[in-house]
Amino acid sequence: MDQPTLSKVKFAHPSELFVAGVLDANGIKWDYEPVEFVLETDELGRPTTAFRPDFFLPDWKLFLEVTTMNQKYVTSKNRKVRLLRELFPEVRIEVLYRKDVMSLVETIKGLQQERDEGFWI
To answer: Is the pTM value of this prediction over 0.70?
Structure first.
C-alpha cells in the first residue's frame, strides 16, 4: 500500500492532521484508520460496538488513537481502548490525549528509543 499523504486523507479532526504531519516530519510510516475491531456483538453476532483507531504505524506494529475532544468522548474512547486491550491483548495501542499531542515530538522520540532498544519487537 502507498504511504498516505496529508492532502489525500480526510481527517476527522484537525488534531489528527497535526499528528500525521509530525509523523511525516519524523519519517514515520502511518496508515489512517486501516482496521476496525469489533468489540461487542448482539445475540445474533452482529457488531454493536466497534473501534477504528486513528493511526497504525506499520514499522512499529502500533496503533495510535488521538483524543483531544470533549471529556464525554474521551471517556467513551477510553472504554473502547480498554475493551480492545482485553479482547485483543496482542494488539498494541497508545492513546494520545490533548497534552500528549501538544508534546508529540518528545513522545515520538521516547517511542523511537524504546523501539531501537528492542522494547517493542
So the answer is: yes
